[in-house]
Structure formats: C-alpha cells, structure tokens
Amino acid sequence: MASLSPITAVLGPTNTGKTHLAVERLTAHSSGMIGFPLRLLAREVYDRVCAMKGANRVALITGEEKIEPPDARWYLCTAESMPLDRELGFVALDEAQLGADPERGHVFTDRLLRARGREETMILGSETLRPLVRHLLPEAEIVTRPRFSTLSYAGAKKLSRLPRRSAIVAFSVEEVYAVAEMLRRFAGGAAVVMGALSPSTRNAQVRMFQEGEVDYLVATDAIGMGLNLDVRHVAFASLHKFDGHRRRRLTVPEMAQIAGRAGRHQTDGSFGVLTGKGGEFTPEEIEAIEEHRFKSLEKLYWRESDPRFTNIDTLIGDLEAKPADPVLSAAPEAVDLAVLKRLADIPEVMDAARGNKGLRRLWAAASLPDFRQVGPEHHARFVARLWRHLATGRLPRTKVAQEIARLDDMRGDVEALAQKIAATRTWSYIAHRPDWVEAREEMADRTRELEQKLSDALHDRLRQRFVDRRTSVLLRKMGKDASLLPVSLDERGAVLVDGEEIGTLDGFRFRPAADARASESRLLLAAAERHLGGLMTQKAGELAASDDSEFTLEPNGDGRPAVMWRGGELGVLEPGKTLLQPVFKPAKALNGLEGSDLAAVTARAETWLTARIDKHLGGVTALLTLSQSPHAPGPVRALAIQLAEQGGVAARADVADAVHALDKDQRAAARKAGIVFGALDIYHHLALKPGAARWRSALDAVMTGKPMPELPPESAVHLSDWRFANARDCRNAGYRRFGTEHLRIDLVERLAKKAHEARGQARDFDIDLALPTSLGLSEKGFDMLMRDAGFRRLPPAEPKEEAAEGTAQGDEATAEAPANPQPVAAPDTVEAPDVETQPAERDPAEPPLAEPDAAGAVPTAEAPESAAVQNADSVPEPSEAAASEAAPSDAAPTDAAGETAKPAPAPSYPVLRYRWVGLAKAGRDQDRKGPRRHGKPGDKSKGKGPKGDGPRGGPRGKRHDGPPRDKQPQGALAEQLAALTGRR
Predict the structure, then answer these.
(1) How confident is the model over 109-117, as a mean pLDDT?
(2) What is the overall mean pLDDT for the chain?
(3) Within 10 Å of residue 355's Cβ, how many Cβ atoms?
(4) CA–CA dist 752, 133 (Å, integer)
(5) DSSP of 676-721
(6) Are 378 and 606 in contact (CB under 8 A)?
(7) What are phi and psi of 719, to 5 degrees?
(8) Which residues, other chains included, contact 607 with Cβ-Cβ below 8 Å and sequence gap of 6+?
(9) Residue closest to 933 by CA, chosen among 840, 824, 836
(10) Distance in angstroms between the alpha carbons of the first and the last residue of the chain
C-alpha cells in the first residue's frame, strides 16, 4: 500500500486525545482504516463508528473476528489484521511505538513503513518515537499533542485507603484476582479487565465501573493501550513484570503509559503504588512521568514482510534476515517462526508442503496465534495436527463442529471459563480463514455465538466472585495487611515472615509449620504466597530444563495416576479422547505460578508424558497405524483397531469374529505387523513388556476413573494368591487367571504350544508336568489352562497298558514300537488355534535371569501377597528336565564309608492324559443343520455334554475342580461340546 499522500505523525503522552483525533479524521474521509494494538480497543472504536456511520458500512477485522459488510467503507482492525491490499482514503496506525516490542514490534514497524492512505496517513504514538519517524519517514509532518490534564505522584497507599475511581494494575492473573477479592472485602467489589477477556466480557466489566456499580477496577497493563476509562488514580500493585523471558522492572515509558490512564480530558489524575507491594518509584522516575520526559527510542524491530517461498530454508532465512537500515534491528524469534522451525523438522509435514503454494499455506498455518499461551512446543504440535487436513484440503465440518461442541460447556470457575474462551478464540481464528474450513460461515457464526455464551458466563462468575459474594474463603480469615509483611527464604528452604519461621517450600508446595496456631498459619501463609512468585519462577525454570529421569508416573494420595517431579506431584492424568491421549491437569500446588511459568511446567510435563507413551506403548501405536493403513487388508485393520482399543492385548474370544474373518494370507500379514495369534489371547508382541503393562494399566485407570492398580514385580511370570481387582486389570498387567493362580500370557501360549506338539496328529496323548511345574503352575492350574485351550482331561491308562509301555521303553533297541494311532480330524465346529507364539521382549532394566536348579525349577522370589515370582527366560524345556541326571563318570564319588555314592535320582513328574476337542469357530455353530457324528462306529452319543463339566459347569455356574467324574463313553462331538460349555 504505497501512496504519495501526506503523512502526519501525532506524538505525545497518554490522555492527549490522539485516538479521538484519528476517529474524527477517519469519518471525515469517504473510506479509511485504523490499526490498533488490542482487539478490545478495535472493538470499542468499532462500536463508536457504527453509531456514527451505521453498522452496514463499518467493518471489524481481528484475528478471531471478522465483520465485513458488502458495503463496508471504514475498517477498524488490529495491526496484524490490517488488509494492506485495499485502497482507502485514510489509514492510521495507533501506538506505533510498539515497534520496539520484542514479540510484536516487527508488525508495527512494517505497518509504519508500508500502510498508506490514498489521501492521508496518520501515525499515532509516543514522543519517544520522534527521532525514528524523522529518520524513517523524513517527509512526515510531526505534530505534538500536549496532555490536557496534570498527572502527579500521590505516593504509596494501602489498598483499603485508595480513593474511589481508582484502577489497580497488576501483572499476573493470580495477582489480579487476589487484589479484586481484597477490594470486595474492603469496598464491596471491583471490576476486572484483562487482555484475555472477550470484548463482551470486558465491556460488561467496564460498564459496572463506569456506571458506578463498583468504585474500583483491577486490570493488567492492557488498560495502558488506549482504553478510555473514567479513572482518577492508578495504583501499581507491582513495578515488575514477566516479559516472557524474565521478571524485570518496568521501563519508565511503560510506567508512564499505564499511569497516564489517570485523568480524563481536563480532569487531573494521580498515580502511586500499593504500600509494601511493588516497591517505590525513584525520584528520577517520578519526575520523568510527571513532566513527560523520556529517553527516545533508538531501535525498532523489523522482519521481512514479503519472504520468498522458494524452499523452507529460503523462507526461514528471509524471516531471520537482518535489516539494512541501522535504526532497525532483526526481530527476536516470535512464536510463529518458532512453530515453523519445529514443523520443518517433521518429515510428514514437509512432504505435504511442496512448492510455493504449499509453503505459503504452511507459513499461514504456523502464523496461527497462540491464544492459549501454551508455548511454541505445545502449540506446534497442535498446528501439526491441523496441517494433516490443511495440506490436502480443508478441515472437515464435522471435526470443527465437534471441537466447538466440546467447548460448549458453561460449567467451571473463572479460570476454566477463561481457558475455554482462549480455545474458542483459536477455533474462531481458524474458522475465519477463507480456505481452511468447510462451511466456513456456519462455523464462524458458531464460534462467535459460543464466545458470547462463554463471555456471559465468565461475567457472571466474575460478579459472583468479586462483587456479589460478601465474603471469600481466603480473605474472610485474612487480615488486611498480611500481604505487606516481609518474607524471606533461607538456605534450608524455610520461609520466614517478619523473621518468624512459618513453614518450608518443598518443590512448588508450601508446607506450614506444625506448631503455628491456626489463625497465624492462615494469615502468614497468605503473606508468604504473595511474595514467593520469584522463587516459583526459578523452580519452574529448573523443571523445564530437567532431564526425563527426574519424572515418574506414580499413584498420588488418592490413588490416581500422577506425574511426579523429584518425588513431588506435578499433576494428575484425566481422560482424553483416546487411551493414548490423557490430559495433564496441574496439581493445586502449582496455583502459585504465573501464567507463563505454569504454561512452561505444563508443556514440559506433557512432553515427557508423550515421550513415555510413545516408548512403552509403541505396540498400541503400531496397531493404530496399521488400522489406518490403506495398504493393509480390511480384516487386518479391523482386528488391529480392536486390539488397540484394548491396549494391545485381548482375549481370543473377545475378537473371535475378527480373527475368523482372516484368511491365510491376511494372518501372515497380521503376524508380519507384530500381531501374535495365541490359543487364548491375541496381542501385539510389544504389548507384554513390563513398561507396556505398567502404562497400559495406568492409562486404563485414567479412562475408567479408577485408582491406579498395584502391579506384580516386573520379573514375575507366575503369581500365587495375587488379587487383581477384576479381569480387566489382570489382562492389562499381562496375565491370565487359573483359579487362584495367574500366569503371564505369553507363557500360557507356550504351554498351549507344547501341548499341541505333544499330541501331534493324535486326539489322545500324554504330557508330563515338567514345564508347568518349572513355571510354578500347579496340576490343578494346568488342568484349567488345558481346558481353556481346548483339551479334556482323561482318566489314567489301564495298568496293563502302562506296563506294556514301560517294557517297550526299557528295550527300545530291540523291541518293536507300537503302531501309531490313526489321526482323527477335528470336526468343522472346532478350530485348532494358531500357536506360533513368541515371548515378550525383556526390558533391559529387568533383573538378571535366575538360573534353574538341578531339577529344572526356577527360584521363587518374594512378591506382595505371597506372589510366586519366576523368570520366563530361565524355564527349561521338558527334555532339559529329563536330562538333568548326569551320566556316571569314570571316577565315581564315594561317601564317608568309602562306598561308591549313588547318583541322586532324576526328578519325576506326573504324566497326564488329555484329549484334543478343539476351540469353537465364531459364527459356525448356529449354521449347522445337525450334529456331525465322529468317533467309533456304533457310538450312540447324541452330542450332549454332561452338565457341570468344565471350569464353570454345573448349576448356576458353580466351579468344579479336579479330574472329571467317571462317565459313560461319549462321541467326539459330545466331548467337544462339553468342553466348550465348560470354558471360562
């Protein structure tokens, strides 16, 4: 927007009517535009011009709000949102000295250099801008506007002694609320004004002050940017502020900008500080403010406003380029550039940002303002999620509608509603982009309506908290001057108030001394908390820079999963959208942190949480990726999503339909992707690692709202008398229950595999208890496992047959082996499970493996509640146990009597006989027209198993343990059905 029109720079102190002059000039032209530093101020002037010219000809354009009638001729905008491509008669920039602001300065410098009206251009700003205007705009006419009234220093005053029509300025949300609560106690209430409020809430609060409903206004330094208020006195709650990098003292121009709000037109005003709160003004500062004499600005921040989009390196290089003019300085890295750099490190993002058009769109996405004040790291992750849609098109209407609906909740306190408004402003900005959202106008209207609803609710909460309620819980028990007492911290962490020790600071939590009287404790605690902001900031910095090893996930005092830092609780996890997306909620101990410090702590905790979930639940992430892969067959994706929803481990019966739908090739594809098909459970091979079990159990507790369960030691594979709360906790921990015993799922599958290897092609077979015994599993538990796996216990063989078998084994060099029984095919109603299982990978931090003893058994470690703890990797095969008897050597050992000692007998294990009856195929039984007969000719069985057979047979599901009772011979189908009805 270039023009040869005259440029007028109107410079002077606050309260000189510069904004009023600009509005007069705007409305005198046929068209025009003014750029403001605040959305609140733009909205205030918009309402004034609408009253003069009619709403159908006036436009309001801010980042998150756009009202532009078709016949709009006068535009009120924020500086960032000024449409420089329009040719308008008049253009003005308000508060141009903000070009020296590190965060937004480059925007105001760009508008100072480029924004021009066709007929007139006006620059409004502080007198400190004069030499830079002379240098950068030599053709500009500089007009000095004197202040209409006198501004004088009134000294330090107690909060209870402030004159009516006073504004108290604080520099953190917490301090604003604290002062407002104290004023409610002393003077009946106060209005609250902050930059984070919506225009509607801010106007409603200001209206209470202007109409005399309350006599005091508590605000942040936002009131220093031209908001027109009827204020007679400005009191500084502090002379220090956190500027995003450090806590520093205000500069003299900043003090004057805020103090200048006192007085209106020709009404004199005064300024001062609260006694004991924010220090004192120096004589030099007082003189400079009263006489409006300040050091001129020497530099303005600049950044290339028209970068090249050849490639990402060129784009970033242009945005970091240094200006040629000596009075301009390269702008510090702003949030948008920091976000762009983080996105550039993500291959998936850059793959979709090809060419000039793609990079322009990516830069527009990175420029999304961080309304929630969560910091570049967290904000970049949010933008990256948006980019998945923006890279190829627009955000779906349904997704935006869901996010808006999620925020459409008027419950919560002041802080919660303010956070919802900040999130709504984000979606409002997105909805107002011309090519980002489907049904853009509808979504923009919905965000505008939602912000209005939230603003009304916030205004009501502010009234209830600071005006309507006669007392507050905090200040009802606190004296007037508690915050004025001197507070110090010694090297032991002891907090001293006026020389008296009242407690200690442990992390972010203040712990009062046990011997302090109740009334004194409350009074002095309030004083301490007001003065520990600097120490809290230091703690927040230490936490943000700390290593991952200093964080842990532990149950807090209520049993809820909590993120701990150096043993102290940072916050708890609350349910998110999915199992892998818990929400971190800071603990109450962090309430003493300022907004930026709290955001840094929250961002660091969330970064650690995301990294731990990615590390330990990579199997679930892999399943989710597989479920969305266009290259995977549909049945495989269906199985993957079911497994992912259950944390990577599911009982085979729970996913039977999905498993049955897989053909041979699809099973192979699923195995290749890491899915293990067991006889009883289906799982991802990474899902049984100790870390996966711990995090799955914790996140499941988050989703269900239950306490975080206690888990067995990481090396435990068999548990005796362990008590899981329910079957879900047992599965999450990676175990399967057999009566009062639990065995790790992968070892259950190993036993099932051994059983199938032992039977070969036969239905009836013998198996000894070497392997289950070495795992610690009892005969009863093994019998229950075999029943679940599709095997039926048979009575022992007749003695004659056992004797014949022993003879054959004793003379196997010469005796003829008995004929193998004919293979018996399983009927169509049963399915041999896939037993190609693999044990879970052992974590490097797992304790060393225990060595088996001579009998092949593994030593049992102690575990809570008498849990038998064993190591899976040290379990010997049955052949190893049988071979543990060493052959006699040439030099046989002798006993004390000189006689040859007999070798120790080899351990013997019971041999049990089982029959394979199979597992049911999902969806097949009901399709059978009639029972198929199997077994020997002449078998008269009708295929009905006896009631009460199996782990949960019998009347009312009563459990029947031990070997089956003697029964009449039955057919194969009858035995199979009996086993199926007896499965747990």
Answers:
(1) 94
(2) 78
(3) 11
(4) 85
(5) EE-SSEEEETTTTSHHHHHHHHHHHHHHHTPPPPP---TT--EEES
(6) yes
(7) -125, 135
(8) 377, 378
(9) 824
(10) 78
53-77: b (≥16 Cβ within 10 Å) or e: eeeebbbbbbbbbbbeeeebbbbbb
Cα 484 to Cα 478: distance, rounded to the nearest angstrom: 12
In 3D space, the residue among 800, 803, 778, 802 whose CA is nearest the CA of residue 913 turns out to be: 802
Q: Read off φ and ψ for residue 630, nearest 5 degrees.
A: -70, -15
Distances (CA, A) of 107 to 65, 113, 243, 293, 364: 19, 10, 18, 26, 15
What is the chain's percent helix, strand, coil content, to nearest 5? 40, 15, 40
Helix (H, G, I), strand (E, B), or coil: what is residue 428?
helix
Q: What is the pLDDT of residues 355-412, one digit of tens each?
A: 999 999 999 999 999 988 888 999 999 999 999 999 888 999 999 999 999 999 998 8
- The residues, any chain, with a CB within 8 Å of residue 40's CB and separated by 6 or more, are 195, 197, 199, 202, 222, 227
* CA–CA separation, 370 and 367 (whole Å): 9
Comparing 331 with 904, which gets the higher pLDDT? 331
Give the containing element (helix H, strand E) for 612: helix 595-616
CA 596/CA 220 separation, integer angstroms = 15
CA 521 and chain centroid, separation: 36
What is the distance of C-alpha 867 from the center of its chain? Answer: 35
DSSP letters spanning 90-117? EEEESSGGGGG-TTTHHHHHHHHHH---
Kindly tell me the burial class for residue 741, based on how many C-beta atoms sit within 10 Å of its own C-beta (0-12, 13-18, 19 or more): buried
Q: Residue 59 contacts by C-beta under 8 Å, 6 or more apart in sequence?
A: 67, 68, 69, 72, 74, 75, 76
SS (H, E, C) 185-252: HHHCCCEEECCCCCHHHHHHHHHHHHCCCCCEEEECHHHHCCCCCCECEEEECCCEEECCCCEEECCH
Find residue 66's DSSP bridge partners.
61
Tokens coding 715: 């090396």
> What residues contact 417, with CB distance under 8 A and at least 6 apart?
410, 454, 457, 458, 461
Q: Kindly tell me the number of DSSP H helices and DSSP E strands found in the chain.
A: 31, 37
pTM across the whole model: 0.50
Could you tell me whether strands 240-242 and 216-219 are parallel, antiparallel, or unpaired per DSSP bridges? unpaired
At 688, which amino acid appears?
Answer: L
Q: Letter for the amino acid at 592?
A: G
In 159-191, which positions are buried (b, 16+ CB within 10 angstroms) versus exposed (e)? beebeebbbbbbbbbbbbbbbbbbbbbbbebbb
The tens digit of pLDDT for each residue in 711-757 reads 888 888 898 888 888 888 899 999 999 988 999 999 999 999 998 98
**C-alpha–C-alpha distance, residues 758 and 835, integer Å:** 13
How many other CB atoms are there within 10 angstroms of residue 956's CB atom?
5
Tokens linked to 644: 């992912």
Chain centroid offset of residue 93 CA: 40
d(CA 983, CA 541): 57
Q: Taking Cα atoms as reference points, which of 136, 80, 114, 125 lies closest to residue 299?
A: 136
Q: Which residues of 834-872 are buried (b: 16+ CB within 10 A; e: fewer)?
A: bbebebbebeeebeeebebeebbbbeeeebeeebbbbbb
Q: Tell me the backbone φ, ψ of residue 176, rounded to 5 degrees.
A: -60, -50
User: What gap in Å lies between CA 242 and CA 373, rounded to an integer?
Assistant: 14
Q: What is the pLDDT of residues 942-970, one digit of tens each?
A: 444 433 333 334 334 434 444 444 444 44
The whole-angstrom distance between residue 823's C-alpha and the CA centroid of its chain comes to 57
Both structure tokens of 752: 């099932």
